[in-house]
Amino acid sequence: MSRREKIEAMLVDEPRDTFLRYSLAMELEKEGDHDASLAKFNELTRDEPPYVPAFFMAAQQLAKLNRINEARTYLREGIDAARAQGNAHAAGEMSEFLASLGSAGE
Fold first, then answer.
1. What is the pTM for the complete model shown?
2. Which InterPro entries match (predicted)?
3. How would DSSP label each residue in 70-104?
4. For the segment 47-66, what is each residue's pLDDT rounded down to a tens digit?
């Protein structure tokens, strides 16, 4: 049984478990299933409250796929979510990554 399959099996019993859902998104990325991975990260960003690390990981994956404008959008939303949750460290990391991507239109 693969790591992904183990996580999926655990999610049957705990379908709302944030860490398991995040782990599944990470495994899907490792397997190269970017659409499924990004969909899982997106779900986590729409939770209440949003899961801040999902914004950063989605943005990193999008940047690797050369989908820079989408990455910027995730980072801006993630920075706002991190600040709203009082997570200055995450907001700072995402701000630095956003700056490293350059301004729109480059």
1. 0.93
2. TPR-like_helical_dom_sf (IPR011990)
3. HHHHHHHHHHHHHHHTT-HHHHHHHHHHHHHT-ST
4. 999 999 999 999 999 999 99
